[in-house]
Structures are given as structure tokens and as C-alpha cells.
Amino acid sequence: MSVSILPGQGQLAHDEQHTHPHGWRRWLYATNHKDIGTLYLWFSLVMFMAGGVLALLIRLELFRPGLQFFYPELYNQFVTVHGLVMVFGAIMPAFVGFANWMIPLQIGASDMAFARMNNFSFWLLPPAGVLLLAAFFSAGGATASGWTMYPPLSVQMGPGMDLTIFAIHLMGASSIMGAINIITTILNMRAPGMVLMKMPIFCWTWLITAYLLIAVMPVLAAAVTMMLTDRHFGTSFFNAAGGGDPVLYQHIFWFFGHPEVYIMILPGFGIISQVIPAFARKSLFGYASMVYATASIAILSFIVWAHHMFTTGMPITAQLFFMYATMLVAVPTGVKVFNWIATMWRGSITLETPMLFAIGFIWVFTIGGLSGVLLAVVPIDIQVHDTYYVVAHFHYVLVAGSLFCLFAGYYYWVPKWTGHMYNEGRAKFHFWNSLVWVNVTFFPMHFLGLAGMPRRYADYATQFTDFHMLTSVGALLFGLTQAYWLFAIVLPTVRGGEKAAATPWDGAEGLEWTVPSPAPFHTFETPPQVK
């Protein structure tokens, strides 16, 4: 989108006259969207590192066959909490941090619509993160029922399960409030002249994601509440002995869980759709089709949940419906991939780090998408259900997908956040190591799954040893690469470095590049006029 601003509009010069609290009060009582976005990003970084440590403990145990370091119960606690921390503690808050920072800047709003609710929705997260990790120290340890928390296991777990349920309620409430805030801000606070179909695509993807969040988070809350009453109040929702049905839990969970997958990738699609046009120096190919494709993915996400349940004995007609509905998701996703490639086609491309991560994302996400189409086919899914093939699929979509989007967005917007340019040489080192080791880690898992290696097992037959060793080495090096990113790029860029211009990128367009770098505490007090 091309934005021209009428003279005399936009950023106010008297920014410095506004006082705002300093020290701990600035962060505890934060109502400024940039501060809250920063809090979200730091929180997600801490949780990402915690989840990464759990992942490395898992890979440490799996380096060789036999039980090396951990009992299977503790191993399954690591697996479960790793999943929950990464989904609810790392990826989702990171995207909300991007939304808080960028949406008001991109639509020319002075702030988010509900500033105090914004503060509250963030401060629900740290206690929830503490509860998730503190479960390890409860009697019997953390929950070990897998991140999906299927009964009957989850009904039989110790008090660590209750802490997890409470944490999920807090994180769900946080997500719902954040989504309400984002929808209200985008629909009511756009700059004059910015009609919906002229909005940056990142705002579009977040608007659609926010509706998804409001639709599915209460469903998850219902599922874990029913589980809680089964555990402590004598109900039998999921207890077959009392007339309940454990498969009912799967239906409720996956009605949340499948849209959740798109909640974790659609904002990433928005980031990629901002980065590629900037470094190809062309406007996004097929803007309207990108918007409609995003909406189509969101709508389809509600009618495919039972593809997670092909092995529960559903009727053949239901299997066929969910198989074809799942395959249909590939169409709008394919539209997006082809539009990104068409945007790059005959563009004047330069390969700075944000663009490298965007191109790397398209490649690895396509691998994850193709294995997803294979898993939609009922006979294949029944064969590889609950094997490492599924683990490979969703890690390609979430690590190589969501995480690469977050890295692309970080490198693209960090000059606007900090006022400093990152070190390009170090950033490229981070990219190439991430790309190589993410493939070394997760590609062999396809072969493990096809050979019959089940997921969530602490021990395995000897024939799986070589691929497990390769995967564990890849995971260690991928983890070290992210530690390098934190200590060699993130922290030095926050503290200093080359000063960033208002528009550090040649082809970047949009209102966020009309304000100085770093973005002042107050922006757009007089709304800019978009022509």
C-alpha cells in the first residue's frame, strides 16, 4: 500500500513534553501500546528459552536407546510442558507483542482502543507462565498427559494438572481481551482515508486472527473446566465408567485446537506479506486475494477438527468429509505462497536478513504444508498417527513456520523499536544456522515416523538410533543458534549500535515508517491523512 501524508499531519514535534512514568512504574502500570508490546515480546522470549531448554532435555534422553537420564514419567512431563509453554507462552504472546507494537503505527492510531485492558491482558501472562513451570515442583510433578491433555490420563494426574488448567484459563482470558482490543482498534481507529482494503496486510491477518481467538478460546476453557469437574466434583463428562466419553474431550479440544494452529500462523503470513514487498521493491501481488485467502483459511479451520481423530473409529462418511475439507485448506494457503513468489518475480530483490527469513519461511513452510496434505489422507494418517511423522509435520509448520515469521518481523521492525540497526553479518549467521539446523532436526523425523517410531516415548528400538542421534545434534545446534541470537544480536541492538533512519529499508512503505526511529512514546496524536 502506498501512503502519502498531507503536510503538517502525522508525528507531533512536542513529544518530549509529555511526561510518562519511569522505572518500574512505567512497566507495571503501562498503558502505552509500545511498552505493552515490548513486555509481550520479552515475556515470549523468556518462555521461548524455557521451552527450548525442555526440548533439549527431551533430545538429550533420546540421543541413545534405553533410559539414560529421566524416568518415562518425568520425560512425558517435559514433553507436555514443552508443548504448552511453546504454544501458549512463546508463539501466541510474541504475535500479540507484534500486534501491540505495529497495529496502531500501521493504521495511524494514537494507541490501542482499551489501554488499561491492554495492561491487564499482559499481566495475566506472567502468573500463568509461573504456574505452568511451577507444576514441576508440585506433588507428582507436572502434567504428563501430552499438550493435548487427553483423558483418562489428565483426569488421573496429580495437582500439577490443576495448576496447568488454571494457567490455561489465565492465558485464555488474556487472549480474549487482547483480541477484543485488536478488533476494536482496527475497526474504529484507522486514520482518515484508510479504508479496510487499503490497510497493511499484517492488520488484516490480525483482525481475522482476533475473531478466531474470540471464537475458540472459550471452547478450550469449557474443555478444561469439564476436566476439572471430572477430577474434583464427581462429574463424568469424560469418564466412561460414569457414562461419559473420553472421545468427547477430543472433539471439544480439537474444535479449539485446529483454529489455534491458524491463530499461530496467520499473523506470521501478515509479517511475510509486509517483508517481501519491501525487499522486492514491488507492491504485494494480489492484495485482495490475500485478504480473501486469509478469511477462507479462518472459516475452513472450523470444519476440519476431526482430522486429528481419524483413529477414533468415526464413520466412513465423516472420514471422507474431514479428509476433503482438510485438503481444501491447501487452496487458499497455495494462493498465498504463489502470491509471495509472484511479488518477488522480476522485483529488484536484495537479501537483507528479514528477506532471507521470509524466503526461508516459504521453503520450509511449504514442506510442512505438503506433509499436512498427506496427513489429511485417511489411510496415510491412520498409518502414521501418533508417530514422529506428525511431530515432523507440526514442527515444520510451527518452528520453521511461525518462528521464522517472528524472526523476519523482528529484523524488519527492530530498527523502529530500538532506533538501532542490528549487525547484518551476525544476523545472517543466525539465519543460515537456523535454516540448516531446523532441517537437520526435523526432517529425519519424517523417516522415523514412516518407520513406525511412536511419539512421546522415552525409549525406542535400536534401529531408530541413527536418526535420533542426528535429530538430537541438530536440536542442540539449533538451540545454541537461538542463544547466539539473544546474546549477540537482541541485547546489543537494544543497548546500542548504528542509528536507524526513519525508513531504514529502501522499499518499505506504510505509516510506521513516517515516524522517527525509535518510535516516540506518543505517535499520531493528530491522525495522519491517508490519500
Automatic annotation (TrEMBL):
- Enzyme type, top EC level: translocase
Q: How does it sit in the membrane?
A: Multi-pass membrane protein
Q: Which PROSITE patterns match?
A: COX1, COX1_CUB
Identify the species of origin.
Massilia aquatica
Enzyme Commission designation: 7.1.1.9
Q: Which UniProt keywords apply?
A: Cell membrane, Copper, Electron transport, Heme, Iron, Membrane, Metal-binding, Oxidoreductase, Respiratory chain, Translocase, Transmembrane, Transmembrane helix, Transport
Q: Does the keyword Cytoplasm apply?
A: no
* Domain (Cytochrome oxidase subunit I profile): residue spans on this chain: 18-531
Major place of residence: membrane
Entries under PANTHER family matching the protein = CYTOCHROME C OXIDASE SUBUNIT 1
Q: Name one GO molecular function term.
A: oxidoreductase activity
Is-annotated flag, keyword Transmembrane helix?
Answer: yes
Record's family? Answer: Belongs to the heme-copper respiratory oxidase family.
**InterPro entries from the UniProt entry:** Cyt_c_oxase-like_su1_dom (IPR023616), Cyt_c_oxase-like_su1_sf (IPR036927), Cyt_C_Oxase_1 (IPR000883), Cyt_c_Oxase_su1_BS (IPR023615), Cyt_c_oxase_su1_dom (IPR033944), Cyt_c_oxidase_su1_bac (IPR014241)
The highest taxon in the source lineage is: Bacteria
Localization: Cell membrane; Membrane
Metabolic or biological pathway: Energy metabolism; oxidative phosphorylation
Q: What is this protein called?
A: Cytochrome c oxidase subunit 1
NCBIfam families in alphabetical order: CtaD_CoxA (TIGR02891)
Query: Transmembrane residues, as ranges?
Result: 39-58, 78-101, 122-143, 163-189, 201-228, 248-272, 284-306, 318-342, 354-378, 390-413, 434-453, 473-491
For this protein, the record's Pfam families field holds: COX1 (PF00115)
Q: What does this protein do?
A: Cytochrome c oxidase is the component of the respiratory chain that catalyzes the reduction of oxygen to water. Subunits 1-3 form the functional core of the enzyme complex. CO I is the catalytic subunit of the enzyme. Electrons originating in cytochrome c are transferred via the copper A center of subunit 2 and heme A of subunit 1 to the bimetallic center formed by heme A3 and copper B.
- Catalytic activity reported: 4 Fe(II)-[cytochrome c] + O2 + 8 H(+)(in) = 4 Fe(III)-[cytochrome c] + 2 H2O + 4 H(+)(out)
CDD domains attached to this UniProt entry: Cyt_c_Oxidase_I
